[in-house]
Design brief:
The chain is mainly alpha-helical and about 90 residues long. The chain has helices at about 5-15, 25-35, 40-55, 55-70, 75-85. The chain has a domain at about 1-40.
Length: about 90
């Protein structure tokens, strides 16, 4: 998944401000930015769900339904779908 919009801007800003940071350190900083900025969080979340729908529409609908209903299996279902998407 390629970052777009505000999420990409936030990550690029982090890379510029911390040029010697490891990938793991940048990821931790990015998580903080995403959690702190609702607009970045929303942009990134929408992009992820769009990518899920493009990859496997019926499975994405099922997983999104789990997320919306706050089902206890939702995190595992999202993780499994994202993992499969990365392998493709």
């Amino acid at each position: 998944m390629a970052l777009q919009g505000r999420a990409r801007e936030a990550f690029e800003r982090l890379m510029q401000e911390h040029p010697n940071a490891t990938r793991e350190e940048l990821f931790e900083l990015f998580q903080i930015v995403v959690e702190a900025d609702a607009r970045v969080y929303e942009s990134l979340t929408l992009r992820i769900f769009d990518d899920m729908k493009e990859f496997d529409p019926s499975r994405a609908s099922y997983v999104i339904g789990l997320v919306k209903s706050n089902h206890p299996e939702a995190p595992a279902a999202v993780k499994a779908l994202l993992s499969q998407m990365r392998k493709q």
